[in-house]
Model the fold of this input.
Amino acid sequence: MAVTKENGQAPVTEGPFETEQLREELRRERDMRLRALADLDNFRKRIERERAGAAQHGKRDIFLELLDLPDSFDRAFQQAGAAPASWVEGFRSIQRNLLGLLEAQGVTPFTSVREPFDPERHEAIGDVESDQHGTGHRSRRASARLSMGR
Done:
């Protein structure tokens, strides 16, 4: 610091001790700044993951509601009987469009009958003894046979 009219003081010469203290303080400040930047970057990444997770969860809720529709179509086709062929074909077209929409969003059909029970993919609603299927295998499909991509 130079001698000035305002402060009237002579310049203070810094010794090696003061210089080392300033370097240490600068190092700490730089470290705190880098940590703050890393924390901010981690915060941004976490918020983006949470946002994507919330969007996926919202999508999942909607698709869970839609999963009954393909089965409803299948049941309707079983009861179509004397319905005009054009109506049946129209409904089959709607079913194909629905399945295409679901598949485009990662909801895909999977086979479950005669396969070992997998609690990650199946929901058990009861036990049925069967000579045709082994213990722990799916013998019937009660509802939707669609799976959301993981």
